[in-house]
Amino acid sequence: MEKAIYQHFHYHGQPETNIEEARNCHFCQLRSFATHDRLPISIVNEVDDQALNPDFRFIDHTIIAPDVYIPDASFRTGCDCKKGGDCMYGKCTCLDEMAPGPDEDKEDGHNDSRRRKRYAYYSSGAKRDTLRGRILNSREPIYECHAECNCSAQCPNRVVERGRTIPLQIFRTEDRGWGVRSLVGIKKGQFVDRYLGEIITSDEADRRRADSSVARRKDVYLFALDKFYDPQSEDQLLRQPPLEVDGEYMSGPTRFINHSCSPNMRIFARVGAHADKRTHDLALFAIRDIQKDEELTFDYVNGESVLDDDMHDHYKIKDMTKCLCGTPECRGYLW
Ligand SMILES: C[S@@+](CC[C@H](N)C(=O)[O-])C[C@H]1O[C@@H](n2cnc3c(N)ncnc32)[C@H](O)[C@@H]1O
């Protein structure tokens, strides 16, 4: 039995184990997820005797900080399509802000301009539910149907909404702490999971950065929800500084995904109800086919490179973090 799991059973075998201790146990947290039986998340360590940081807690939903304003539920409206199948087309109001692609009808074997496909996913065949190439190669947000819509939970425009479909494993790497792999193959364009955490104000995110010994090290856990931020927006919420997601101490398995300069996934902004744009999801999708057991990665800095000048500055370089992604495209340093 892997050491981490052995420790778990040993710990729970003790008669004095109380409910609070069980709540602090990572295996118990993962076992409490509604998806546990179907899509378990496992933790293995075949490298050393480290366990996960006991201060970290697994969550399967976002935690909104008390000082973050969330629009009243009555602002959250959805489409009134009669059937889920209608939601792929232009008249679905969830897709109002999504531009139709030039040749998507042909890709799907249709040529009827009155029923122009507009949603982000392929609707049939082997690529069904995977992101269309046009979206995959863009920075466009993904608009989906959601709980307030009239269509059913099986609507094809609810891929992120339906959740993770892949069993994931957190494993100890040889040189980069913990990492994450998939126990099944993943197709290019397939949704993997959301990046979860505490949604906090930008002031609070700055406070947490300032408290961290190296701000860039804290930055790897903080993601700004800035896709819809627009100082000129008519929506006064979108004029406010973007909220941020902090996954350092509360998150799902994606918090353990390492960086690669040649990654196999990318983060997309995904919106359900348009009133929730300011708290949009961070959804990880495969950008190429991923083999079973291959480590999952994304580019933490979206292709940005540490400044060349810094790399030649003797004083700066000793504080920089070497990238160990090991790919031929490696840019050398994380920050
Ligand atoms: C978001 S965490 C990823 C999970 C982390 N490996 C762990 O054990 O908790 C980011 C941290 O992982 C390490 N890391 C991730 N990708 C790396 C890479 N390509 N090279 C070196 N270290 C990496 C760095 O220590 C970084 O601060």
UniProtKB/TrEMBL annotation:
One of its GO terms (cellular component) is nucleus. InterPro entries: H3K9_Histone-Lys_N-MTase (IPR050973), Post-SET_dom (IPR003616), Pre-SET_dom (IPR007728), SET_dom (IPR001214), SET_dom_sf (IPR046341). It is found in: Chromosome. PROSITE patterns: POST_SET (PS50868), PRE_SET (PS50867), SET (PS50280). It holds the Pfam family Pre-SET. One of its GO terms (biological process) is methylation. Residues 319-335 form the Post-SET domain. Residues 166-301 form the SET domain. SMART domains: PreSET, SET. Keywords: Chromosome, Metal-binding, Methyltransferase, S-adenosyl-L-methionine, Transferase, Zinc. Residues 77-163 form the Pre-SET domain. The keyword rRNA processing does not apply. The keyword Chaperone does not apply. CDD domains: SET_SUV39H_DIM5-like. GO terms for molecular function: histone methyltransferase activity; zinc ion binding. PANTHER family: HISTONE-LYSINE N-METHYLTRANSFERASE SET-23, HISTONE-LYSINE N-METHYLTRANSFERASE SUV39H. This is Histone-lysine N-methyltransferase, H3 lysine-9 specific dim-5.
